[in-house]
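Researcher: Next entry in the queue.
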Amino acid sequence: MYLGLDLGTSGLRALLVDGTGAPLGSAEAHYDVSHPHPGWSEQDPKDWVSACETAISQLKSQHGAAFAQLSGIGISGHMHGAVLLGEADEILRPCILWNDTRCADEAAILDATPGVRELSGNIVFPGFTAPKLLWVEAHEPDIFQQVKKVLLPKDYLRLWLTGAHVGDMSDMAGSSWLDVGARDWSETLLEHGHMRRDQMADLVEGSESSGILRGALQEAWGVGEVVIAGGGGDNAVAACGVGCFKEGQGFVSLGTSGVLLAAKDSFAPDPATAVHTFCHAVPGRWYQMGVILAATDALNWLSKRLKASPAELSALVTAVDGPGQALFLPYLSGERTPHNDSEMRGAFVGLDVGGGDAALVQAVMEGVCFALRDCLEALRATGTELEQVLAIGGGTKSRVWVEMLATVLGLPLALPKDGEFGAALGAARLAMVATGAEIEAVMTQPEIGEVVAPKAELREAYEAAYQRYRRLYPAIKGALA
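Model: Structure for this entry, 481 residues:
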């Protein structure tokens, strides 16, 4: 049996699968995000351990006999977070999360440093790990001096599981300390970030063993020797879950954030496009992705304003015969691709006195689609081409939203049949490979239930709307300056 752990921003999901990769059961536990100041986003790493204990307890009670046969665990986690540990692995401060923007100035300085983009393969975004440590050095120097190790979120969970300081290339590729092409720490990047190699985790590939479950947990869980796979950053592991690791394969995710990801057989970065180029969770592969910070989160934001659930709001838009009059910029907490702008904020434009809630919902859905189209154009600027992509994430439950997105992107979207896929399954698959399974045999694509094609009759109208949307960023940016 194999266990996939997916450490998300709001909760942890544990998925138990058998030797064929078929799901047997799952459990979840949730925790909070703290926002002590504007732009800050933090969590207590101990909450992740508590959530894991809760999820494991649930699985043991529901699937005790199967759980006792556990032989491998894989871990996925939200990227870029900074867990700062002292001499005895004590937590020195709350983890600074991926969506924390306090270190925008430090990120800009690091990004402008000669050689940084070339070695890391990426723009240094404010959400990345290296500028967080520069912020700590400048604003919390007493804490900075005590830092013995810096771990990413899932790797703190690994420390609890194994007692070892280990990370993987796919997750560390978003730190701005890794030479992403060489798949190793860069002494130059570490020096620019005022860090040392001995403060870094040991590196493994996501599909390799990173250690063995420590004895105390073996006894508490009633299991034998369990291999802990390297695992990876959430999007790389989600790609493993949907079998996306070869050139030409890709997926779009309508989750809390939005992602358009393309697998790559070689390292071909183009930082100027604001496309992320990271190591994949399997050896010898990379991936590129455009990222928007608010996808379904934009609808969540509107639901709080209108005091209706996201599902209730989605139900207001049952059919669309073309773009609405109102436009929405989903930059509620800044944006990554293509703007690399932590200060930009969202906007509604073109509101009409006769428009109701449905018009606002449609504008939000379309704004997210246009932002993902920006990601597609950025990927194309690097030479990446996609002919069809998988569509995953909670937003795909809305048929209208999927049809909109297919039309705006001009790409057929393949919807997996109901079943298990994504980061938790990808983590379990990495555990299977770490214990001897072949990548090609394990990381297959899900059965497709339907392919949603772009609506040809609406393409021209949506193209015109997208061009209007593109003109709004510089106009609103100027108005906010």
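Model: Residues 178 and 184 are 6 Å apart (CA to CA).
Researcher: Noted, moving on.
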